[in-house]
């Protein structure tokens, strides 16, 4: 079969089985460009198709993956600490590339409006750019992705929700990516103080685009709740309690979460220090 005849699900599986980070993101961006060319009518249509994605995506030999408690912590005020922080972000972005293609391939048997694929392909393309941007920042600091150990277990959310499409939407975009909105302003501050404007610029791109990813999650979660006649808030709470390990950590970026269609009554009841408890303990 000519590679151009591949379905979207097969393209997704191809990204997932590519180990090298830069090769993975190049393939991801190629497939995204092809998808949008087809959607504009500039090439033959691409079918959604079906594919069986690997349970774990292919990854490069480096970085070495360690349990989070074994990953050394460094002070963000020092250059090695800044490099370690950037390396951790790069690892998250590479994981995010795989997560976005995985949801396309793994749930390709579920009938969805074409807009769902538009959103996820666009997000996968943006994650690929995020990884490349962070790689360039690391290289600008005489390091590279793979130079330091990284967290194992990043794929756990994907494994836990491999059979549950709505659980995947609840945990990945609406919990994990939303958490990114909470912590990114603090990271931007660290690199502003470190006088690394190219890193600040990269993180600002990431911050702006991640709002969209959370919004896609919320949009399609609500869509599926409507299809199955479920109350979105109750269902979100049930799924996060089922699949997410631990409580959500305030402070929350309420402004950006609101922009992404995530209201406070979705996340506060799942927080380790809910408003109600805080009120009574004072
Ligand atoms: Fe990202
Ligand atoms: Fe994202």
Task: Please render the helix and strand layout as text.
Blueprint: H1 8-16, H2 21-40, E1 65-66, H3 79-106, H4 114-140, E2 150-151, H5 156-160, H6 165-193, H7 197-227, H8 232-243, H9 254-259, H10 264-267, H11 275-281
Parallel strand pairs: 1-2
Helix pairs in contact: 1-2, 1-3, 2-4, 3-4, 4-7, 6-7, 6-8
InterPro entries: DUF455, Ferritin-like_SF, UCP012318
Organism: Aliisedimentitalea scapharcae
Region (Disordered): 48-79
Overall description:
The protein has helices at residues 8-16, 21-40, 79-106, 114-140, 156-160, 165-193, 197-227, 232-243, 254-259, 264-267, 275-281, and strands spanning 65-66, 150-151. By secondary structure, it is an all-alpha fold. A two-stranded parallel sheet has the order 1-2. The radius of gyration is 19 Å and the shape is globular. It starts with 7 loop residues before the first helix and ends with a helix. It binds fe (ii) ion (FE2) (2 copies). One fe (ii) ion (FE2) binds at residues 93, 96, 127, 130, 206, 210. Residues 48-79 are annotated as: Disordered.
**Strands side by side in the biggest sheet:** 1-2
Q: What integer value in Å does the Rg equal?
A: 19 Å
Residues in helix, %: 55-70%
Tell me the number of helical segments per DSSP (H or I, 4 or more residues long).
11
Terminal-residue CA separation: 67 Å
User: What is the 3D form?
Assistant: globular
Small molecules (ligands, ions, cofactors) in the structure: fe (ii) ion
Strands, count: 2
- Overall structural class, as computed from helix and strand content, comes to mainly alpha
Order of helices and strands: HHEHHEHHHHHHH
Q: Strand portion, in percent? A: under 5%
Protein name: Ferritin-like domain-containing protein
Organism: Aliisedimentitalea scapharcae
Pfam families: DUF455
Region (Disordered): 48-79
């Amino acid at each position: 079969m000519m590679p151009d005849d591949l379905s979207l699900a097969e393209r997704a599986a191809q990204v997932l089985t590519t180990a090298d980070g830069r090769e993975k993101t190049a393939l991801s961006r190629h497939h995204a460009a092809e998808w949008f060319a087809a959607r504009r009518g500039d090439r033959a249509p691409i079918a959604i198709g079906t594919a069986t994605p690997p349970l774990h995506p292919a990854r490069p030999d480096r970085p070495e993956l360690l349990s989070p408690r074994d990953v050394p912590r460094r002070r963000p005020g020092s250059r090695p600490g800044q490099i370690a922080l950037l390396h951790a972000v790069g690892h998250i972005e590479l994981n995010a590339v795989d997560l976005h293609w995985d949801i396309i391939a793994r749930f390709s048997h579920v009938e969805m409006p074409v807009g769902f694929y538009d959103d996820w392909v666009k997000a996968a393309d943006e994650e690929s750019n995020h990884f490349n941007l962070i790689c360039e920042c690391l290289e600008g600091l005489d390091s590279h992705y793979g130079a330091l150990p990284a967290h194992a277990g990043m794929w756990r959310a994907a494994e836990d929700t491999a059979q549950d499409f709505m659980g995947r939407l609840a945990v990945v975009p609406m919990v994990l990516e939303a958490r990114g909105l909470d912590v990114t302003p603090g990271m931007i501050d660290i690199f502003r103080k470190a006088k690394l404007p190219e890193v600040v610029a990269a993180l600002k791109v990431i911050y702006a685009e991640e709002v969209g990813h959370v919004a896609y999650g919320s949009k399609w979660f609500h869509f599926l709740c409507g299809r199955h006649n479920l109350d979105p808030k109750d269902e979100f709470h049930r799924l996060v309690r089922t699949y997410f390990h631990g409580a959500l950590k305030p402070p929350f970026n309420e402004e950006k979460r609101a922009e992404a269609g995530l209201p406070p009554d979705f996340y506060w009841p799942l927080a380790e220090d809910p408003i109600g408890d805080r009120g009574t303990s004072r």
